[in-house]
Design goal:
4% of the residues lie in helices and 47% in strands. It has helices spanning 124-127, 173-179; strands at 30-39, 44-53, 66-67, 73-77, 86-91, 100-106, 112-122, 132-135, 141-143, 149-153, 156-165, 182-184, 191-195, 201-207, 213-222, 224-228, 235-243, 246-254. The termini are far apart.
Length: 255
């Protein structure tokens, strides 16, 4: 039993059924997928479940959805609105157009590698689908049916960091322009070059891991800009690059 309010629950033998006990579980059509995030260096991992049934909804369903536990390393999903942090989420009946926003959190200070992969799949519909993970921070798209997605992170919480898809995200002209934005050398000890061959750069904003603005640089419609990072502390930063065709964020290591 999972309580939805405070109080006392009483169970007695008179409540038991001695025969015909076939009504406690109604048949439910369901598809389920488990995703695991793993850190091999510290042997930490966490698994989250997303299920699809004909009795659940896009919103929070008592008895089906469950909030995530505060573990050292966490992978969790959000409601379609981007709210809540769920360790188990039940959505409506499966269709390939469903999108699941997901978050990631780690209490490990050091920058280490994490891998996200499919732990298990059950259900005819989801078993036949292609499963894609989109990293909204880096722009990377990974087919999890073909292998895991690797990324590096220090201690941080990234709500809405990922999107779980069940169809190949077709890139638009704008998406391709942003995907071609490059920063180098990375890691860097001094000057960082930002190159955007398909879209003029408008603004650069350098942020720390807490999202605080460290530096902002307005650009006069250029495709190649240099950023001096010599005076900054050795740390991990995020560079928000605004172009005429949209924004992209790159992870920068200053050493």
């Amino acid at each position: 039993i999972k309580a939805t309010a405070s109080g006392v629950a009483f169970f007695e033998n008179s409540m038991r059924r001695l025969s015909g006990n076939n009504t406690l579980r109604n048949p439910v059509d369901k598809d389920r997928i488990w995703l695991t995030v793993r850190n091999n260096q510290y042997e930490m991992q966490n698994t989250t479940l997303v299920g699809f049934t004909n009795v659940s909804t896009q919103g929070f369903d008592n008895g089906y959805d469950s909030r995530r536990l505060a573990t050292v390393v966490s992978l969790y999903s959000h409601l379609p609105s981007g709210d809540m942090e769920l360790g188990i989420q039940a959505r409506e009946s499966f269709n390939e157009d469903i999108e699941i926003p997901m978050g990631f959190s780690t209490l490990i200070d050091a920058d280490t590698e994490y891998k996200i992969s499919i732990a298990d799949i059950q259900g005819a519909n989801v078993e036949q689908a292609e499963v894609y993970l989109v990293d909204t921070l880096t722009g990377m798209v990974t087919n999890l049916n073909e292998g895991s997605y690797s990324f590096t992170s220090g201690k941080a919480t990234y709500n809405n960091r990922f999107i779980l898809l069940f169809r190949n995200p077709e890139l638009s002209v704008q998406d391709y322009a942003l995907a071609n934005v490059m920063v180098y050398p990375n890691p860097t000890s001094g000057e960082l070059i930002v190159n955007s061959p398909d879209a003029s750069i408008v603004t650069l904003r350098l942020l720390d891991l807490l999202g605080r603005e460290i530096n902002k640089q307005d650009v006069t419609q250029s495709n190649r800009v240099s950023l001096n990072m010599r005076s900054l502390d050795n740390a991990v930063y995020f560079l928000e690059i605004t172009t005429e065709k949209g924004k992209v964020i790159k992870r920068i290591v200053k050493e």
